TrEMBL record:
This is FERM domain-containing protein 5. The chain crosses the membrane at residues 502-524. Its main location: other. It is found in: Cell junction, Adherens junction. Residues 17-298 form the FERM domain. May be involved in regulation of cell migration. May regulate cell-matrix interactions via its interaction with ITGB5 and modifying ITGB5 cytoplasmic tail interactions such as with FERMT2 and TLN1. May regulate ROCK1 kinase activity possibly involved in regulation of actin stress fiber formation. One of its GO terms (biological process) is actomyosin structure organization. It comes from the Eukaryota. The keyword Membrane applies. It comes from Caloenas nicobarica (Nicobar pigeon). Keywords: Cell junction, Membrane, Phosphoprotein, Transmembrane, Transmembrane helix. GO terms for molecular function: cytoskeletal protein binding. PROSITE patterns: FERM_1 (PS00660), FERM_3 (PS50057).
């Protein structure tokens, strides 16, 4: 039996697992890994396949059976992190957006970041005013099909590309006009570089939205960018907090806390509620990693962070990679011949139809489609009162790296950035957590009641880890609908947490008293004559306690027991 168990264990250790990783150009990389293979091993295989040296900006993402997204941890076993059954499906994505993507050393790195931002643009995560949207789309056209050729590109050719969740005819004409007249002669590398320079200036550059609700039950999206922590509500960026102002992040159940310390104001605590405890933990881990990557000077300064307090069992997490400054210093030392880049060109794409010649997706006629009003108002409006008692200063993300003159002007007053005319609504399939089915039904009903076309564009999301998640998912959804009982549910959750903490305290107290009672009985009643017990018994305090308190108590207890026994015998 022992030999059979040992042979079975060795077979389990030697077992190989098939992995499929979907890359940014929608191609796939397949490999096999051992049971004990770490995440770093799989990541190094991918980077070798891509001939990528500036790899610290990227990561591997997967979805568990509960549709919760995770970043693969490189210091842990891949198999132990994947709760789904093999074969495993993961995605290669940008995890830390470069502060200045145009300053990346190698063209291959810029190309991969270009593909990621193009996905962000298509899925509604990257918003901009109409003129900027037309310019970005024209850069994509120039990079993928080259110069305008009347023989190859008939009238309306730009309408066959899907750059955004929705298009308008006016926007398509503007894209074609810029492509024809302003970008002629630009190589793909030059167009991609110009695209990155423009995208980096936008308010929502680097945003990976996490759906939450504030203390009033209003829907919000939280995000971590290269420049700080961002809160988006409705069509506005209500909070922007620089990384050096964030002092602490923690979570308890579904509740996420952000501790902020600013020069002019007192310390502030922002509180938000995630859809699930797993979503809240993912949000917390993303915040810890982003703050360490962008804020610290050296990776040796990274410390293990705990979310626990006195009565709650918390999580411990430590960022394991290099920080942004170290990555830039390492990139400057790269000296090799630029690797050959195999651009996707016009290869069909599952999740980015912008590089296909297929018809544009829409469930309503062209005449009824509304333009995507992705406009940013010139300047910034004054900061309005939010749901929090103390407003947090909002500043442009570029100010975090600007000179003293510019930052001084930006900080002269409190402001809030208007992102778009419509609610910030990235596609559901790109959110870290799923939207509940009843929330989806409410959103569709509300849109119909308001007379808005219920156009739901399906996309085959590539970031899936289960067969169910690989099915076509809803592409464009509105922001989470605030529940009518959001505040009441939050209060009930806080009461439940308080009750649990009190119960834990009582259990710990009873346990300690029980241990002390056992020790007391051993000291007074046992015949153990060890040096430890002998020293305690010979102290005057113990002798006084033994003869004045313990012996009378023992006689009283014995008397009561005899009385109860005699009573039982008589009856």
């Amino acid at each position: 039996m022992l030999s059979r168990w040992m042979s079975g264990s060795s077979r389990n250790l030697d077992r190989e697992y098939n992995c499929t990783v979907r890359l940014l150009d929608d191609s796939e990389y397949s490999c096999t890994i051992q049971r004990d293979a770490k995440g770093q091993y799989l990541f190094d295989l991918l980077c070798h396949h891509l001939n990528l040296l500036e790899k610290d900006y990227f990561g591997i993402r997967f979805v568990d059976p509960d549709k919760q997204r995770h970043w693969l941890e490189f210091t842990k076993s891949v198999v132990k992190q994947m709760r789904a059954q093999p074969p495993f499906t993961m995605c290669f994505r940008v995890k830390f957006y470069p502060t200045d993507p145009a300053a990346l050393k190698e063209e291959i790195t810029r190309y991969l970041v270009f593909l990621q931002i193009k996905r962000d643009l298509y899925h509604g995560r990257l918003l901009c005013k109409t003129s900027d949207a037309a310019l970005l789309a024209a850069y994509i056209l120039q990079a993928e099909i080259g110069d305008y050729d009347p023989g190859k590109h008939p009238e309306g050719y730009s309408s066959k590309f899907q750059f955004f969740p929705k298009h308008s005819e006016k926007l398509e004409r503007k894209i074609a006009e810029i492509h024809k007249s302003e970008l002629s002669g630009q190589t793909p590398a030059t167009s991609e570089l110009n695209f990155l320079r423009k995208a980096q200036t936008l308010e929502t550059y680097g945003v990976d939205p996490h759906p939450c609700k504030d203390v009033s039950g209003n829907a919000a999206f939280l995000a971590f960018t290269p420049f700080g922590f961002v809160v988006l509500q409705g069509n506005k960026r209500v909070h922007f907090i620089k990384w050096n102002e964030v002092t602490k992040m923690k979570f308890e159940g579904k509740t996420f806390y952000l501790y902020v310390s600013q020069k002019e104001e007192k310390k502030i605590v922002l509180t938000y509620f995630a859809p699930t405890p797993e979503a809240c933990k993912h949000l917390w881990k993303c915040g810890i990693e982003n703050q360490a990557f962008y804020k610290l000077e050296k990776s040796s300064q990274v410390r293990t962070v705990s979310s626990s307090n006195l009565f709650f069992k918390g999580s411990r997490f430590r960022y394991s990679g290099r920080v942004a400054k170290e990555v830039m210093e390492s990139s400057a030392k790269i000296k090799r011949e630029p690797p050959e880049i195999h651009r996707a060109g016009l290869v069909p794409s599952r999740s980015c139809p912008s590089i296909t010649h297929g018809p544009r997706l829409s469930s309503v006629p062209r005449t009824r489609r509304r333009a995507v009003h992705i406009s940013i108002m010139e300047g910034l409006e004054s900061l309005r009162d939010s749901a929090h008692s103390t407003p947090v200063r909002s500043a442009s993300h570029g100010d975090a790296f600007a000179g003293p003159g510019r930052s001084g002007r930006a900080e002269s007053s409190e402001r809030v950035a208007v992102i778009a005319d419509e609610n910030y609504s990235p596609a559901d399939s790109v959110l870290p957590t799923p939207v509940a089915e009843h929330s989806l039904e409410l959103m569709l009903l509300s849109r119909q009641a308001n007379g808005a076309p219920c156009s739901i564009e399906e996309e085959k999301e590539s970031e899936a880890g289960t067969p169910a998640a690989e099915a076509e998912e809803v592409g464009e959804l509105r922001a989470l609908c605030p529940g009518a009982g959001g505040l009441g549910a939050a209060q009930a959750e806080q009461v439940n947490k308080f009750v649990l903490s009190v119960l834990r305290l009582l259990l710990v107290t009873v346990g300690l008293l029980f241990v002390l009672l056992l020790l007391l009985i051993v000291l007074t009643e046992s015949d153990l004559d060890t040096a430890f017990f002998r020293d305690i018994r010979q102290t005057p305090e113990f002798e006084q306690f033994h003869y004045q308190y313990f012996c009378p108590l023992r006689r009283w207890f014995a008397c009561k027991v005899r009385a109860v026994v005699s009573l039982l015998i008589d009856t």
